[in-house]
Design goal:
The protein has a domain of 243 residues: NAD(P)-binding Rossmann-like Domain (Rossmann fold, 3-Layer(aba) Sandwich), CATH 3.40.50. Helix content is 43%, strand content 16%. The protein contains 13 helices and 15 strands. The chain is globular and about 55 Å long.
Length: 351
């Protein structure tokens, strides 16, 4: 995708990758022992980047860091600097941001149910922790901060697909904290000129996603249940819809956002998804059928339907046009391709 707006050239993903390979940079990834963060760190290491990691290992795992080292090799992994620390500690954030070019922020309390049960804790991590990273990065003159937001900011507005210009009315403390992050980031750009980019993720899946994690981890939960002979659970009638986005698309979006030089991008938020929604019932059939190709005994397995959970939205579909126009985002993995590329990892690690 090549186009011009004034003097700012819209880069393709391959061009952005080429630029950081030619001139390696130093990246701080918070929450990098988690699912999305660890996949992104691995790609950056593979591309010859220097990567600092800040994680308190609350919802992330040291095994994910070890897997990165195993997959990239000792020589490349020597560019990885892991620090166990908490974003609620401002001094840890300041030290982590020292001599860093880009910050990719994923550290958060990620569970909607936990946010409903412990809203004060949720706020301490997701708002206070975010502010620590935001202003530590600004004060250390980091080039840009790309941070994880969520489709949870939209709430249960029936209008589909979701566009970034819609009025956001979250229905959980988790969604509210993500919206507050967006507002602080936009304010930081307006007042201080600091380059921030928010990415509103729709249901991300892929290798290293925890089957014991938050509600969004439905794919590994089901695979784990089916492989262990248990019956998976669907909350509600299964007709609720989600846009399932493979982690490869998220990696692309982060690198594009961090490398952007377009002033129209800074202080903004972008939907990051595949652009296609799937019902939970259809998702279950796809997952079960793919597994049954390997384990035929799974073919007869049927789900258990339980009551819908409070705080879960009914339908969610994303308009990704803005990310395409301004970031050059072009998702490469739909649900089927993402499952095809991830299934071996799920089977090997969850069986």
């Amino acid at each position: 995708m090549q186009e011009f707006r004034g003097v700012f050239k819209l880069e393709t993903y391959s061009q952005a990758v080429d630029s950081i390979v030619r001139e390696p940079r130093t990246w701080l990834v918070t929450g990098a022992a988690g699912f999305i963060g660890s996949n992104l760190v691995q790609r950056l290491i593979e591309l010859g980047q220097n990567v600092k990691v800040l994680d308190n290992l609350t919802s992330g795992y040291a095994r994910n860091i070890n897997e990165i080292i195993k997959n990239t090799g000792i020589k490349k992994a020597s560019n990885l600097d892991f620090v166990e620390g908490d974003i609620r500690d401002i001094n840890e954030c300041i030290r982590a941001c020292d001599r860093v070019d880009h910050v990719l922020h994923f550290a958060a309390q990620i569970s909607v149910p936990v946010s409903l049960e412990e809203p004060v804790f949720n706020n301490q991590v997701n708002v206070n922790g975010f502010l620590n990273i935001l202003f530590a990065a600004r004060d250390r003159r980091v080039r840009s901060l790309v941070y994880a937001s969520s489709c949870a900011v939209y709430g249960d507005d029936p209008k589909q697909p979701k566009t970034e210009e819609m009025i956001c009315e979250p229905i959980s403390p988790y969604g509210l904290t993500k919206l507050i992050n967006e507002q602080y980031a936009a304010l930081s750009h307006r007042v201080y000129g600091f380059r921030t980019v928010g990415l509103r993720y729709f249901n991300v899946f892929g290798p290293r996603q925890d089957p014991k994690g938050a509600y969004a981890a439905v794919i590994p939960k089901w695979i784990s249940s089916l492989l262990s002979g248990q019956t998976p659970v669907i909350y509600g009638d299964g007709e609720q819809t989600r846009d399932f986005c493979h982690v490869e698309n998220v990696i692309q979006a982060n690198i594009l956002a961090a490398c952007s030089q377009d002033p129209e991008v800074f202080g903004k938020v972008f939907n990051i998804a595949s652009g296609r929604s799937t019902s939970i019932n259809d998702l279950y059939r796809i997952v079960k059928n793919r597994l049954a190709e390997i384990y035929p005994e799974i073919n007869g397995s049927g789900p258990i339907f339980n009551d819908a959970r409070f705080g879960d939205i009914k339908h969610s579909s994303a308009d990704i046009g803005k990310a395409g126009r301004l970031l050059g985002y072009e998702p490469t993995h739909d649900l089927e391709k993402g499952l095809e590329e991830s299934l071996n990892w799920y089977v090997n690690h969850l069986s």
